[in-house]
Each structure stands twice: as structure tokens, then as C-alpha cells.
Amino acid sequence: MRFLHSLRGTNLPATLGVVVIAAVTLVLPEVLNPPDLITYVTIGLATVVVAGLSLLMGFAGQVSLGQAAFYGFGAYAAAILAMHGWPPLLALVAAAAMTAAIAGIVGALLLRLEGHALAFGTLALQLIFLSVISQTPSFSGGPIGLTNIPALSLGPIALSSYRSYAYFVWIVTAVVLLLSRNITRSRPGRGLRAMATSPSAASAAGVNVVSYKLRDFALSAAYAGLAGGIYAFFIGYLSPDAFPVMLSIQFLIMVVVGGLGTVSGAFVGAAVITVVAQMLTSLGSAPSLPAQLPTVLTEGVYAVILLLLLRLMPDGIVGFASRVTKRLESAVPARRARRQAVAATGSESVLGPPAAETVDGTCAGRRQ
Amino acid sequence: MLAVDGLVVRYGAAVALDGVSLEVGRGEMVALIGANGAGKTTLLNTLSGILAPSTGTIRCAGRLAHVPEGRELFPDLCVDDNLRLGAWKADSHDPSQVYDLFPKLRDLSRRKAGYLSGGEQQMVAIGRALMAKPDLLAIDELSQGLAPIVVQEIGRYLVQLNARTGLSVLLVEQNARLAFGLCPRAYVLETGSIAAHGPSARLWDEPAVQSAYLGGHVTT
Amino acid sequence: MSVLVQYLITGVSRGFLFALLATGFVIIFRVTKVVNFAQGSFAVLGGFIAYSLLGAGVPQGAAEVLAVLASAAIGLVFGAVTILGKMSPTASLVTTIGLALFSEAAAMLIWGTTPLTYNGLSGHDIRVAGIFVQPQYLLLIGVSLVSLIILWLVLDRTYVGKAMTACASNPYAARLSGINVKRMGLLSFAIGGALGGIGGVLIMPLFPITYDGDVNLAILGFAAAIVGWLRSPGLALAGGLIFGVAEELVAGYWSEANETAVALVLMILILLWQAHRRQRVEKLV
Fold this sequence. Notes:
heterotrimer; B: alpha/beta; 6-stranded mixed sheet; 3-stranded antiparallel sheet; C: mainly alpha; two-stranded antiparallel ribbon; 11 helices
């Protein structure tokens, strides 16, 4: 019943779209073949990570370049715990919690700093993580990695087929997205949104900016850790190569493509970029082409996507689509439609221009 | 000197100025009083080009210099540098005229602006604006955070400046008594529109102005 | 003992490289409030351009100078893409990330994946504190020091420099004084580009660079800048030297694979210390 109440105030086409996509994705595992099931699971896990990152970027206005590190940390933590006899499900939850704790410590340090220190700080964290993992073979398997990770089992049921993992991932993703939706709509959500566009205004209004940013950062890490843990069980094998810096950047691009702070944007961004990445890799890997082409192609295309989107579609695909549908529903006065669009997508375009009409682009006033 | 007509300024969906019209003649000292949030700073920011209006016109026959609320100096630069930077758009960077006007600043010329008292900072802020060789000086909240005696002194300097050089002054204030005392003509700004205007002496007597801005108990 | 001196000299040279990058970060951040993720790319591209110019026959010295000018121009372009128009700080940061990615892809496309290097200052090794040092090290230290001093003088003593400082400390008031803050921002990007280029051009003869070297350089440059709270070039210089020397000592006495990680842990420790100091100040106030 509460779920139906929370639907009040949504725009109908978007909700219908979500229901349709949910239904289709629920049925898909039945018909997909194993390679595509792997893609399916990949998209699902990426959605979970991106949901967290999107929350962080869209609401706390902070950029993290270390989500792959949290993803990897969750993966290794879950794997190592499971290999030491922990029930896999418990290991999964513990991994997510531990990831959140690490983020809390690092965030407490970095979020005090002005500007986007978190971006570099999390990148540093990523590099440290990769270094540590590669250098401690007895613990983490070193550069060769961990093998023979036990399968994920929910009580007596062990997930053994790709298909069963796909369903499990669907459930987790759906729960995570619903949770995010609740967060974006609750009062803390709105306080966070204000923070992204104007931290000084938000703190003047009584929002404890630092603690919300920290909570948001830890939550995004928890999401990534959870997804990483599932990844470990799914693949059954881990190595440092699976968590490069490029992966963090990929998550970032997924957020921008989907739309900051939007819940459905996490899925859209994850799906689009995963498909694009696979296309680029196969395109660049034809036997006659030079070996470095896939990387050049991928980085180049990612760069162009980022730069173009930031200028032309800072709201991402979801934000853009939302604006377009609102304009089409011309029966509704423009101002009310815009307010509805903002409420539905939950973002006031942190990537867009600042609120006040300033001619030189800096908000006239004291420095924050 | 300055003619503003039907100025409308928005912050997103909120309207900060709703059709403001006012005039400042050559050599005039004109006051604009209003409470916090009335739109005074928005108006000045629009006049000096920081904000862009949605509609309306601004016609200025000369150069306008804006002395911002809270002084807004460059705290790590010394007084002399603060003054010289005010002349960024002017021909001469020579601050000697400002030192003639505010002799106290001469001794402070090498001190960092962040270490000055409120009154000294206000003099530097006005001096910096004057370095641009303006025809109209717009001052936002001259009295803010300053002791009354200091405000009086600076007010005297302004009147002298106006009398000697014909510099027009637009004094934007919450402190109606100060504003009416220095300027023969005034406007009253309330929630984005001009609520009243005319000779200061007449506005002083109006009951609405009395109760809102002058404490309500003063009789002429 | 002589091994230690060797490490110190190498460490100080790399430290100056980080300091150059860090100063670039600081200048760009102070004027535009943007953390420029592409700062390392300036060094890589500058070095590679010098490499190509030398390969094309441009004389030693002229090639390096041209490469630095090219880096400044690249900085200007990056700045334009990042700050012109209405961009929020987050959008600007992500834009610089996109630009860094783009630079990597372009570098890989044009110059390939093998590490590149060229001959530095030729001549006999010079004797310093009991060991023989390649002249290129001294060139690096010397030119970096001179560049930083010149920059400091320009910012502190010239009218334009003071205008930049003004933009950095109070953009609103700068705007009111008629200073074009956006133009100053572009200038700061050009300076950042030049500083990065100087670093890249000078370091390539000593430590070969690959197309993806920008990330490591950027991160350590940023770490050094953070020591100065992203505001003080002097502290950034100190930070750069600390990290440069620390890296070399770790690489020498422990293992090369750990050098970056240790530097970063050091950065976190410094951040901890800074946070602690700020807390104490806040308690006193």
C-alpha cells in the first residue's frame, strides 16, 4: 500500500515505462543464452554501483573516482570471508558493511577539503587498493588472484547457473533502486539535493552538510561493495585486473549518461555504456587491427561522450527525456510542468548552470 | 545620469525585482531605502552588470561604480593594491586623489586590507570604486557594521565629494535616517517594487515610512 | 651514503616536477575553483611534442621551448572548454576528466604505447656531494626553481598578477572592478599548461613517459597541492619535494612497485594532520 502511495505525484508515462522495463527484464533470463546472461548480470551489478554514485554526485555534489575500488574491495572481502567458512550471504552483507566503513573513514578526511578533493582522494584510494591487493599474495592471491570462490547460496538454495544469478541480481537491483527512490523523495533527499546546488544555502537552512555528504559517500560505497561481492560469487575468480581505474571512470560515465540523481538513470546509463563498451571492444579487436585500438577507441569514445553530454545533455538521457515529455504535454502550464519534471526525476541538474542568472558564470556572493 | 525603467529580474522562477523604475540626475544624491530582502542588492548587481534583467531598460549616461555590501575587499592585498585594482578599466592607476579624500588611508597604504577596521575598509571600498573615475557611485549598505560616528564621518566625505566634483550618488540603505539625512530625494523599495518616492523631507513624514523604517515615534 | 645522495637528487628532481604540476593545480583552482584533472596531461603532451619536434630536426632547446608554448596553448583550449559558458563546479571537474581521457587516447593514437624519451642536456656528469650526476637533473631543478620564482614574482609584483590574485580571493569584487574573471581563468589555465609542459619536457630525458603517465603525475601533483590546501604555491613546492623524495626512497630501499602507494598513504597522513590542526584552531577560536 505504501508503495502505491509513494507513486502519487509521479508522471504516468515514466511509471509505465519503469513497470514495462521491470517486467521485460524479469522475463529476459528465460530466453537469453549464457554470454548474454553474463551481460545481463554485468548491467545489473553496474546499475547497483551507479545508483550509489548517482546519489553521491546528484545530491552531495561530490565526484568519486574510486567506485571500482569499493567494488573490488567488496568482491575480495566477500570472497575471502566465504573461503574462510562464512555463509556466503552473510559474507556478502559483511562485505558491503566493511566497504561502507572504509568509505566513512576516508570520507571523513577528504570531505573537509574544499572543492573536489574527494575525486582525487578516491582515485588515490583506488591506486592504493590495487597496489595492496597485488602485493599480498597470501591474503588476496596477489596478481594471480583468488580462485575457487564458493557459489552464492541463499540458505539451502545454491545459485549454480547463470540464470539463477540473473534472477538474484534482478531482485537485488530492484530493491536497491526502490531504496534509492525512497531516499531521493524523503526529506533527507531534498536536503541533499539543495546541497549539490548550493552548499552554503543548504547549511544556512540547517542541513548538516558534512554529515550528509559522508552518509551519502558511505552509502554509495556500500552499494558498490554489495555489487562487488555478488560479482565475486558469480565469476568465481578475482584478480586486480578486474578493477582498473578505467572501471571507475566507466561508472562515472554511466552516471552522466543516465542522469545525475535520477533513479532510473542508473539503469539507463549502465545498460547503454555496457553495450557500447562491448561493441567497441569487438569492433577494435578484429584480427587485422593493431592491439591498442580497443583502448584508444574506448577512451576516445568515452571522452567524446562525456564532453558532449556535459554541454548538450547535462541531465543525462533520463533528464532529457523527462524534459521532452513535459514539453509535449503542453496542456500543463510550463512552470508547473518544470516543477513536476524536477520532482519526478529528483534532480535539479547539478551538472547544469547554477540557479541564479549570472552573467559571468560565478554566483555573485561570498566564496563558500 | 541614470534612468531605470520597468526593470524585472528573476532568480530562476522567483521574481526579485518586479518592474522597478528610478532616476538619478547629474550631481544628485539619491537614496533607496528598503528592508532586508527587498531587492536592493539585486538592483545594484543588475546595474553593474553582474545580473541580467529579464525585461526593462537601464540607461546610464556615464560610468557607474558599485560599492558592494560588506565592502568585499581583496583581503590578502594591501590597501594600495586594492585601490589600484579599482582602476582596472580606467586610464590612470594613481591613487593620490583617493588619499587626498581619505587622508587616514595614506598611513595604511601598505597594510593588508583584511586587517583594517570596518570604517577603514569602507573608505577603501569607496576609494576603490572612485578609482574607476565614475560619474555615478552606487553604495550598498554604507552603514552596515559600522559605528554611527564613523558612518557620519564617511557621509560627510560623500557630501563633500558630491559638492566639489558633481559626482552622482545612489545610496542604498536599510538605515532610513542616514539615507534621508544625506540625500534630498529618495525611493522606497519593498519586495521588489518601488513603494514610494519623492523628496526625503516629505517621505520622512509619511506614516507608512515612519512605522516601517523610522521606528514610528519620530515627529518632525 | 652515495646511494642515499643519488636517491635524494632523483627525489628532489621528481619533487620539482610534482611541484610544477601542483602549482598549476593551485593557480587554476584559486582563480576558477576548478580542480583540473587534466593537469598531468599537460606534462605528457608537452614532453611528447618536444619528442616529435626533436625527431623532426628542430634544434635542442628550441624544441623544448616550443613544446612548452604548445602546452600553454593546450591549457588555454582546455580552459575554454572547461569554464566558458555556464558550468557548475562538478560539470567542470568531469569535463577535465573527459579532457584527460581524450588526451590519453590522442597520445596513444599519435605516439603509441611504448615509453618515450630523448636526450637531455649533453655533457659530462657533474660532481655533486661526492657523486656524479647527469646534468639533466640539475637542469630540471634549476629551470623549475626559476620558473616558480618568476611565477611568484609575476603574481606578487605585476598588475596583472595582482588582478589574478584578486580574482582568486574575491571573484565578485574583481568583477565589480571590471576585471574579466573568465579571461583570468583562461590565463590561469594557460599558465597551468605551461607549468605542466615545463615539467614534462624536463623529465622525459630522465624518466621515460608513456601515454597514460598523466594519471600518476596528476595524482602526485594534486597530493602536493593539497599540502598547500590548494591555495599556497609555497607549501605545494614543499609538498612536491616531500613526495618526490619519499617515492625515491621507497623505490630504492623497498620496492619500486610500492612507491606510489606509499606516497599516497603519506598524503592521507598529511590530510589527517591538517584536519587535526584545523580542529585545534577551531577549538581555540
